[in-house]
Amino acid sequence: MNNMMNYTNGWMGGGMWIWTVIGVLVVVLLVVVITKLSNKK
């Protein structure tokens, strides 16, 4: 039980910043794609 709690807490703690990085990368990619599409027109 204690081992399971440590695993979940460790994953969530380490997972939050991973999701933040993924979110930032997605936003940057969207901005790049939109600017490229805008330049083509």
Question: Would you summarize the structure shown here?
Answer:
This protein has 41 residues and is an all-alpha fold. It has one helix at residues 2-40.
Describe the structure.
This protein has 41 residues and is an all-alpha fold. The protein contains one helix and no strands. It has one helix spanning 2-40. The protein is rod-shaped, with a radius of gyration of 18 Å. The N and C termini lie far apart (59 Å).
Q: Layout of SSEs?
A:
Elements: H1 2-40
Rg calculated over all Cα atoms: 18 Å
* Percent strand: under 5%
Number of strands: 0
Topology as a string of helices (H) and strands (E) = H
For the structure shown, list the relevant keywords.
41 residues, mainly alpha, 1 helix, single chain
